[in-house]
Specification:
By secondary structure, this protein is mostly helical. Among the domains are: 42-94, Membrane-bound Lytic Murein Transglycosylase D, Chain A (Roll); 105-160, LysM domain (Membrane-bound Lytic Murein Transglycosylase D, Chain A), CATH 3.10.350.10. The chain contains five helices and four strands. The strands form two sheets. A two-stranded antiparallel sheet has the order 1-2. It has a two-stranded antiparallel ribbon with strand order 3-4. Helix 2 (56-64) crosses helix 3 and helix 4 (122-130) crosses helix 5.
Amino acid sequence: MNEQKISMILGAVVVAVVGVLIYNYFTGINRQEELAQSTEEQASVKIHQVAPGESLWQISQKYYNDGYKWVEIAKVNNLASPDLLEAGQALAIPELTVIPSTVSEEKTIPTSEYLVAQGDDLWKIAVRAYADGYQWTKIWEANKTVIANPDRVEVGTKLLLPR
């Protein structure tokens, strides 16, 4: 009879511990969602008055030195047609967090020539050479004679990297 009581007590303790863990898990998810929402709401925002003939790309270049960030401006302002801006229109310019580059200094390409290694593609080479993957087109334009298809770069191909 003692073994039966001990087993019953241990079983109840296990059920209670599992219940507490499940409760903490689900309340923790709600807290994380609330924290993420409040962080987004607290982000600093600037206001920009659209000049005649100005595009989101130009505005993005002005504030972020990166035209591709125009998407963030369009998203914050809920623009149905991002290519249709009116002069004098007020746009909220969000403060974006800068994600540090994962490219280490030893892997950068400082020279104007590069020999393609296993696993390389034009995007990866552009990131290492210019710290900007979107510059792959610059590499392709300079090497069209040796690269027939920009999606396939052969190992051992010598590329010119415009500087």
